[in-house]
């Protein structure tokens, strides 16, 4: 009986969370319209997001038995709601629940899950920045186009001629770090590999404060300077991806993250089929066909090869973007 009461209580609590964004909105709107404080305006905007969070939470990873418990859905809701309040510049956007869900599954303690999600968003938050002109992830889509243009100009030209030069069909891959392309467990394995490959022991230093520029500016080529400054330390402290940046990076060629090269590796693995595509619908179908059939370790190995190839070609071009 106690377990049943607990379950009913959890269901009740989560239902209250889901509907929180719908309650008192009319009253809040009247108060803001009457000229109340900026803080109340912030509260109104936050409450507006709560309903969307509730809608997305109940659709996230529904195949997992873990989320059959309303209390676990409530944890996911809480973390997303709190994050949207603490980071009002970004707020909440669709896709964040896919990134947060693994943290809730992996960490029993809700506070641990929140801070791991916050650190993940520290990496990815600019992808979710929206303006009237653009969505932040479009920068990474442009980077994907740049990489393919350098390493496989024929494939790039074909996709561009089909009207796919914006690479919008890779939007989901980059936005939620391949959560839909790989199974739940494989996507987490992929994340761990990517982050290990990108590891930089200098990150997290007390002087590394969000929003601040590097303290030392030696020249126009910080990666080359980094190589000079780091010669006295073993290079193996850096992940393989970062080691390649240090060895071969030139100009701004090192700024593209590994996730873009993982996406490029998927395109290269389907190169022949993509070159035979006669329309964007077919391109999208080809990319959707690989869902659940990809190998995380192989994708990262191919990404490293493409990364080195890109850096060497970019260096031969003088570090310029084309």
From TrEMBL:
Basic and acidic residues compositional bias, start-end: 1-11
Region ranges (Disordered): 1-36
Species of the source: Ceratopteris richardii
Coiled coil ranges: none
Pfam family, one: RabGAP-TBC
Bias kind Polar residues: ranges: 13-23
Protein name: Rab-GAP TBC domain-containing protein
Classification via PROSITE patterns: TBC_RABGAP (PS50086)
């Amino acid at each position: 009986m106690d377990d049943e009461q607990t379950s009913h209580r959890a269901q009740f609590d989560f239902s209250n969370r889901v509907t929180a964004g719908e309650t008192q909105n009319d009253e809040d709107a009247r108060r803001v319209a009457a000229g109340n404080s900026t803080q109340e305006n912030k509260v109104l905007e936050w409450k507006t997001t709560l309903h969307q969070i509730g809608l997305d939470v109940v659709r996230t990873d529904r195949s997992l038995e873990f989320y059959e418990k309303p209390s676990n859905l409530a944890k996911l809701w809480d973390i997303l709601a709190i994050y949207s309040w603490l980071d009002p510049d970004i707020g909440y956007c669709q896709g964040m629940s896919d990134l947060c869900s693994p943290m809730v599954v992996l960490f029993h303690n809700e506070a641990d899950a929140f801070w791991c999600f916050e650190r993940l968003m520290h990496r990815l938050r600019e992808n979710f920045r929206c303006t009237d002109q653009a969505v932040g992830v479009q920068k990474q889509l442009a980077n994907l186009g740049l990489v393919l243009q350098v390493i496989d100009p024929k494939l790039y030209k074909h996709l561009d001629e089909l009207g796919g030069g914006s690479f919008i069909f890779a939007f989901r891959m980059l936005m939620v770090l391949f959560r839909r392309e790989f199974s739940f467990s494989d996507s987490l394995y992929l994340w761990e590999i990517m982050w290990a490959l990108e590891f930089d022991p200098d990150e997290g230093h007390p002087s590394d404060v969000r929003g601040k520029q590097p303290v030392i500016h030696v020249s126009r080529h910080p990666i080359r300077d980094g190589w000079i400054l780091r010669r006295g330390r073993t290079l193996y402290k850096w992940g393989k991806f970062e080691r390649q940046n240090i060895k071969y990076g030139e100009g701004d060629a090192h700024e593209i993250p590994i996730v873009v090269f993982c996406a490029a590796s998927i395109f290269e693995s389907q190169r022949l089929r993509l070159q035979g595509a006669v329309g964007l619908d077919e391109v999208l179908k080809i990319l959707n066909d690989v869902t659940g059939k990809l190998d995380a370790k192989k994708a990262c190995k191919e990404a490293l090869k493409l990364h080195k190839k890109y850096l060497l070609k970019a260096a031969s071009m003088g570090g310029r973007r084309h």
